[in-house]
Amino acid sequence: MPVLHFSQPSISEEAIAAMADTMRSGWIASGPRVQEFEHALSQTFGGRPTRSLTSATGAMELALLACGVGQGDEVITSTQSFFSTMNMIVKVGAHPVFVDCDLITRAMDLEQVAAAITPRTRAIVPTHFPGGLVDMDALYALARRHGLRVIEDAALVQGSEWKGQPVGSFGDIATFSFHPNKNMTTIEGGALVLPDDATAKRIDVLRFHGIERLPDDSRDVREASGKYNMSDVSAAIGLVQLRQLPGFLAHRRMLADHYFEVFPQIDYAVLPPRGIAGQSWNMFCVLLPFEQFGITRQDFRAALRERGIATGLSYESSHLTTLGRQLGYREGQFPNAERIGRQTVTLPLHCGMQKEDVERVCHAVREILA
After folding, report:
1. Mean pLDDT value across residues 70-82
2. Is 39 a member of any domain?
3. Are residues 35 and 147 in the same domain?
């Protein structure tokens, strides 16, 4: 039986041909394809200024810098997120102030966010998870009351909506990922959706060495920065993927719906939220009470691997990493995120799958836990 990968990009012949045409054009670094891709992306976000980058990690770093976050500042974020959020907050010199999350939606706890705000707080960074979002109205109302910036980590939810509006089409700043395991891919890549043209111009400078053009067309650098610009080759793939995204989202939604239909009944298991309108599905994470079955998560995943089924861990608690502990955090502070970190297994979900593959996964889960 073939191996069922945890994640797998869907690269069409059209995307391969677009990449080849760009390679033959002689212009493979940032150029006309990047501009076209950014314009097409912007249209999906209601025409808001949009900039492509080499990764969502870079997008988070530049978003923090564009918000003026730096040495000694505090940024409130959920400990239930990929490590890049914590890493970029620390990298710009700020201190991540972690809060817990809801056990099912994984949305950050806004009551804890409100309690964590201090005079040093500069921004709130929520991570959106498949199947459900943080209460966006309450989040932005809280940010406005305290004069705080919001940087939405939307890497996992391209295509999700809040009350009929696509994530990224409203609010402050949103970051997206085009890694091969996301809803669409540019091989590697990411994007920033920005609130105004002034911020977009600042990102233009930050994403390419901090270079500014002077009136005589010579160059100047006012502040040190790195290199984060996307290539035309990646943008060519992205243009095709963006056109195919509605089909990708529909297929992923069908697979998630089937998981809910056939996943075995397991006492104390926690599945993602079901039936929330307008939500996209990048992955399907379940919490399983391994102690109840006398098996470790490592052994459970190994048993699935023996059956040709790959899985992931999404995500370990950031505050319990070595870096998190060095920042002063300890076990027991955020029980929901810690339980998620201990018990989560992320099951295969990608456009290379069909309903039969979902049934194969669920049968294997039932068989192993029996």
Report:
1. 98
2. yes
3. yes
